[in-house]
Design brief:
Length: about 180
């Protein structure tokens, strides 16, 4: 699985495909119009040019498969690889893969989310806790494994990305409690 971050629009397309929302493309304008009229609102909100670019990217990454229909349309379906990638974008099902060997670096998530976005701030705190992060201070959380993509996704999902930072540190003055918390040496 690629280790890169998808934009919110790409995440939306992948999630829609993984939810079984079919997307059909065809060169015929009449069939195109019929397909577009039948699409759910979520598809209609995505710019057509951007959608075609995303579909081509997903095809190249083998996240989708194509099936030719009898009426000349092409149905786009999510591949097994695409389903696995889409799981990463479900906040409820999100996990962070732990490598076999710790790289001796801590990932520090810091944020200063304004009061008007209090609900998003609390949701982010709750998710960090669920993922196993250790709270160092009120808006400072530590984790020993690579998690930058997941944090970027959560920040985008909760619409607070401009207020969230991820630091990778090799040395902290008082990290013994963090190492004990995660069972590291």
């Amino acid at each position: 699985m690629a280790k890169y971050f998808y934009s919110p629009t790409k995440q939306k397309v992948l999630l829609l495909l993984s939810a079984g929302v079919a997307l059909g493309l065809t060169p015929s304008p009449a069939v195109q119009w019929r397909i577009i009229k039948s699409l759910p609102k979520a598809w209609k909100d995505i710019n057509r040019t951007a959608l075609r670019r995303i579909i081509n990217e997903f095809k190249y990454d083998r996240l989708i498969d194509f099936r030719d229909e009898k009426d000349g349309a092409v149905t786009i379906m999510i591949s097994e690889k695409g389903k696995k990638m889409a799981l990463r974008f479900h906040p409820e099902q999100m996990t962070i893969k732990k490598p076999a060997i710790w790289d001796k670096k801590l990932r520090i998530v810091i944020f200063d989310i304004p009061e008007k976005k209090k609900a998003a701030r609390e949701a982010l705190r709750k998710k960090l806790r669920q993922l196993g992060f250790k709270e160092v201070q009120k808006s400072v959380w530590a984790y020993p494994y690579p998690c930058e993509d997941e944090i970027k996704f959560l920040a985008e999902f909760f619409e607070v990305s401009q207020h969230v930072r991820v630091l990778t540190v090799t040395d902290m003055s008082t990290d013994a409690d963090i190492k004990i918390h995660f069972g590291l040496n």
